[in-house]
Each structure stands twice: as C-alpha cells, then as structure tokens.
Prior knowledge:
The protein is an alpha/beta fold. The protein contains 20 helices and 28 strands. The longest helix is centred in the last third of the chain and has 20 residues, at about 600-620. The radius of gyration is 27 Å and the shape is globular. The relative contact order is 0.09. The structure holds adenosine-5'-diphosphate and zinc ion (ZN) (2 copies). One zinc ion binds near residues 389, 390 and 427.
Amino acid sequence: MADAHTDSPLLRMAVPSPLRRSFHYLPPAGTTPEELSCYQPGIRVRVPFGRREVTGILLAVEHNAPDVEPSRLREALTVLDEEPLLPAHLLKLCLWAADYYQHPVGEALHSLLPVALRQGRTADYRGHHSDRAGSDPEPPGETDTAPPLTDEQSDAIRAVTEAEDRFDTFLLDGITGSGKTEVYLQLINRMLESGRQSMVLVPEISLTPQTIRRFQRRLPCRMAVLHSGLTDRQRLNAWLLAARGEADIVIGTRSAVFTPMKSPGLIIVDEEHDGSFKQQDGFRYSARDLAVLRAREEGVPVLLGSATPALETLRNAQLGRYRHLRLRQRPAATTASAPFRLLDTTGKALQDGFAPELLQMIREHLQRGNQVLVFINRRGFAPVLQCSDCGWVAECSHCDANLTLHRTPPHLRCHHCDRRRPPDRHCPDCQSGSLNAVGLGTERSEAVLRACFPDTRILRVDRDSTRRKNAMQDLLEEIRQDQPCILVGTQMLAKGHHFPAVTLVAVLDADSGLFSADFRGQEHLAQLLLQVAGRAGRAERPGEVVVQTRHAGHEILTTLIQDGYTAVTDRLLEDRRDAGMPPFSRLALLRAEASEPDAALNHLTEAREMARQLIAERRLPVTLNGPLPAPMERRQGRYRAQLLLRSPDRGHLQRLLTPLCRHLETTTQSRRVRWSVDVDPQDML
Ligand code: ADP
Ligand code: ZN
Ligand code: ZN
C-alpha cells in the first residue's frame, strides 16, 4: 500500500497550525496526471489534519518528501480552486513575510484570507449593492475638481510618474496641510486613466467616512474598502473586487496590504510613521515595510507619505534607498502653520492641571468666536486614586498597574486588562475616608473646563465617549457647526481630521513622552505634537499651539519649536547611532509569559543559552540583552519576561532566529509558558 504511493507526486501544503513547517499530502483519490499538472501554487485544498478537516494552501507539487514516511502520508480531500486565490507575486510576499516575522506559514496564510475562504467556501461575489464594502455611492454631480498644483506638488507627481511600471520607493515628506492627499489623488487618477489599480493603506484611526468620501468625490471609480469593521461577506466581496480588477482603488488598514490585485500600478502608505501599521499580536508584520516589498514584487512605485516620517524611513532616504520628495509649503489658498510655544509650569499653581494663563488664552479664543482643542493622552477622570492619610493606591489585582478612576459612570478600571470595580469609599488599609483623585484624564479636564466655561459647549472625544455607533460622526457634525466650543480628547483628535475653526491647540502634558521607558518615546512625542498642531487653523484665522511642560528647557522641545521636525530627527538619529539602536541596528524581541512568577524568565534563560550556542557556532554578530522582567511584569494575571536580540544586519538576525524559533517550538515542553517573537518590534513595553 505504502510503496504504491511513493512515486506519486506529493502536494506540499501550508496548513493552519502553530508548527513552523509545511505538510505533505497525496493528491485526492482519482486525480489524473493531467489534473495534477494544472495545480498551481496558491490554490486551496481541503485536507485532513489530525482529526479535523482544514483548508490548506498548495505551496508546491513535489516528488519527494524526505521528512515523512510514505506509509504515513494521507490523501488530500478536495481541490477547491482552479485559479490560485493568491497570485504568484502575492504568495511569494506572504511566504517571505511568514519567514521574516518568524510566524508559522500555515497560520500566516490563513490569517490573511477572508473568513469565508478560510472555511473553504467558493470564491464568488454575491450580494446586493449595499454589500459593496464602504461604497454609499456619491450622487452624481457632487464631484470636486482638482486645484492647480503647487510647484512642489508637480515635482512630486512628476518624479513618481516617471517611475511608472517599475519599482521605486518615494518618501513624500510634507507638513500637514501641504497637499499630500492631493498628490495621491492626482497620481491615482493617472492610474485610472491607464487602467491600473492603486492600493492606499491608511492608519486605523483615519479610515473614516470622510476620507472615503474625499476620494469618491474626486475620483469617478470603484473602490474596495477593507477594514476591521466589515462583515465576513463584505470583506470577501471587497477582496474579490480587488482580485478581479473590478475595483480601481483598494483602500484599507494594515491587513489590506495582502489584498490580491489584478493590475496594480501604485501603492501608497499614508501617515507611514503610524504605529498601527505594525500588527501587535499573532502574525506581527509591518504593513508599511511589506508595502515596499510588495511594490518590488509587483514592479510598481510605492509612495510613503507623512508630515513626520519615522526615523527608519528618514534613514532609508538618507542612504538613497528611498527618494525624498518634500512639500514644505501649504498651498496659498489655505493657511500657514500655527506657531508653537511652550508654557513653563514649573513652580506654578495649576488649577486641576490647567495653568491660569492657559485658561485665560482659552477664554480669549472663545470670545473671538473660535474653537479650542485641548489634548490629553489619557482617558478617564484620574489615573490614580490615593489615600491621603497612608498613601495607599488603588491597584489592579491582575496587573502591575494602577486603576484609573472613571466618573461616567463611577468606577475604577484597569486600562491593561479592562477589569472594573466600584470605587472604594474608604481606604482598605487605614479606613480613612479621605481618598484623593490624583492626576488628570479627559473626563476631569472636561469637568474643569465645564466649571470654568459654564456657557460653552464642551465636547469630549475619546474611546469611551465614542463607543456608540455613529457617536464620532455626531461629534464631528457638531464641531463642523462652527460655533465656539472646546474639544477635549485623546489622540483620536490628533489624527485624520481637520478642524478649520480651531484656533488654539493646547497640549496639557508633554512630559511623559520626554522620559518614556520606550526608546522611541521622544520620536513619538515630536510626531504627536506636530500632528495635533496640524489639526488647526485656516487662512483667515491662523492658529496657535501651546504646550504645557515642566521641562521647557528640554532639548527636544526647544529644538522642535525653534528648528522644526528635521532638526529633532537629526538629533535623535545621532543618539540612535551612538546607542546602536534602530535604524542603525535590527531588533527582535522574544517574549514569554506564564502564570507562575519565574517560569517565563527561566524559559528565556534557556532560550538565551541556545541563542549563545548558535551565535558561537555560526559566528553571528548578534548581541543579547536580558532576559529581564517586562517593564510591566504582571499583566492579566501572567508574569512576563523578554529577551532582546540585536544585530547590525537583519540577515544575521534571521540566521539566528530561524533555528532558535524551531528549537523553542520543539523544546517548549511546559504548556504553561507561552512565548512569541516580535521582529522589528514597535512596542517595547
Ligand atoms: P495633507 O494631506 O498634506 O494634509 P491635503 O492634500 O489634505 O494635505 O491638503 C490640505 C488642503 O489644501 C485641502 O483642503 C486641499 O484641498 C487643499 N489643497 C491641496 N493642494 C492644493 C493646491 N494645489 N491648491 C489649493 N488647495 C490645495
Ligand atoms: Zn489609608
Ligand atoms: Zn489589570
């Protein structure tokens, strides 16, 4: 029986499984050689796996499988597709990504497919018009016309157009409001004229109906919109429209980078510095970096746009790998950038977090009939509830973290595991009744402003106030009424929207970013300040930006204000070079967690020994740092540890990670320890 099969070609399959390998199967019973010769990599095949039946992706038809005994080979069940679901270029990219990010190939491919296709359903478009993802189609006639371009815009468009039909990477480095989106629109329009598709990747927070409408008003075309809020059917439909070339624009958040396209012509990544392009769990890929690789595979240009490019991207531009296009000016019809100033709060008595001068400025702007934006990057009423007699602080019982006090409705909440409980009335340690809310969140800022400006509308914008469906739309609608009001909010206000009637932007606390445990803290602070500042103002009402700080002399803040973002990034790049940190090195973070205190650390100590051996054997320039407890060691009741791996070169890091992960996979006996690897980690905490 077994021998009869050894000559038969075998199907090498990617199967959804946590194992970092592929699996061989015999072709389905009765498959003819002619049929077999038509099987292309990228088609789906139903196969038995353990006691289950799963959908796998064919990787290759091969004649031998050195790692399996012929007698143990099982037969595949059904071939589901005639044409590959994933075209060759895309399949290659996905395999590269699974390899590079050290993720099991079957799981990686599986996670990229719309749910219906994972389940093995046929890849057919069904449903009525409203299922077309996103698309309230605009009534005809409501189209915008293109403005005449500025010289800088024309230069940028010319540079990208000259790269048509071949791979090249461009950094479109332009201050907020300088017309980057206008550049995208005109480039996409050229693609439309030549019958090519464009892919636009945007950060999670900015894929709003406004964004989509802006594209739709300008471009008479079919769009496939992909984001996490779609039903399975909508997602499948959008995916198929893109795959068949029936959608001219594919616009979506990070996972959209894996959408098949029939005739791609251009890839755009907007706000390329945004952290949401990196997936933080499971298959931890960077959609921004994969967009560049995809463009290379497809042989098309890719445009990375930002007002505040990431240091990695700037470094690539400095090295000449990316072509640096700049938009330094806003188009004349719009407005100049708002001037920045620091408000030194050292030694000043603050009124619940607000300097008296700031409250006075807010008053003046409101009196002139304008709107004010107050930015504070913390939800809730106060980050700490403390006993003023003994110093007790309300902490989460499952995390190394304080509980945040919320007022609407009153409760204590952990922002890391989401556990909630009623606020204490008495100190559990000394029974004192004097418990104090310490520090400032959005709810408290809102309350302070209500007390100071009882006749003014105050609109709070954070994850809590916008949970209800359409809540954000309603808030934006209200802001657009142009009446004097104060917007208080988190980074939901910092991105994606423009508020033309806002003339004062106040940042309540810039200091946590200056002294963050994350080595990217200062880079992120500079980006955030410029992004918030960029929300405001228009031609006839220029804005101003005030930043409250106790460190008004800090070099990063003074450099940003006097010399701008480029001066800050030059400075930060020097620091990174001195410290040997990215972009002057490559990192990978090995994480482990367990419910017992030392298990995760012990596991990583073993991993370090294994890594040391591999480094010595293969003479790899990789340094190891740790293992150490994670900055927040206990989270959701589990103890966490991490081991940092660093190398000047990503190839060397890969030569260590691949055998190391295989080894960890086979030696992780204890199911009590969960481990993962994060290549090019963004979030180090
Ligand atoms: P960014 O994407 O860089 O923030 P946008 O493309 O959104 O900038 O442009 C900001 C504003 O300026 C928009 O209202 C846009 O319509 C307008 N605009 C862009 N380019 C021009 C131009 N060449 N002439 C006049 N207005 C322009
Ligand atoms: Zn007490
Ligand atoms: Zn918690």
